[in-house]
Amino acid sequence: MKTVFHSADTRGHADHGWLNAHHSFSFAQWYNPERVHFGALRVLNDDIVAPKMGFGKHPHDNMEIITIPMEGILRHQDSMGNSSEILPGEVQVMSAGTGIQHSEFNVDNDNALKLFQIWVFPREKDVKPRYDQKAFSPESRHNQWQQIVSPNPDDEGTWIHQDAWFHLADLDAGNSLDYAVRKPGNGIYILLIDGEATAADQSLSSRDAVGVTETDNVTIAATTNAKVLLMEVPMEW
Fold it and tell me: How many domains does the chain have?
């Protein structure tokens, strides 16, 4: 087993006034040659968007984009004709493929929007763009893994064009979960959203992360109540 530890305070940071963003991997004006990606996981942004502000229409192509709102309401519109609101407890997926344009805004007049946006390199380029959005029950991740992303349209949750699996878990203090790698050779990137825990013998606090490779499984144990995002991705594709 090999591990790499990314503490919360080593992330890139940009405060634009309307947007307060932390970057786990090189993004925009922040570049760290040792933090460009973890396998197929290219972007993990922890964004806070001010009330009534957001990202105007902008393009993407050949990327799988997963958005997970944590607080607030995200208003989305895109060139595929989709117009929707994404709430906490929901997950949005877009396969940018041959190219899309979209905008994202905080619809609240008073409160900030908090979200994670994640980009994953696809296993094939120039696919037909697609959109998906699904709500997930909080009870279904209490002390258990809740699958939110997979490569398979018929599996639980949303799906993307990559051999990747994403899971959420809300752990009570003292509880632990084992995770078995779905595809040999894949790596596991664990972000502790909140709380304190250990994973792969690494102590984690809120927003710390650990990447794990060359293993078939990993255990995460909650020291306090903890929220976990686990992402299994190919290291080569």
Answer: 1
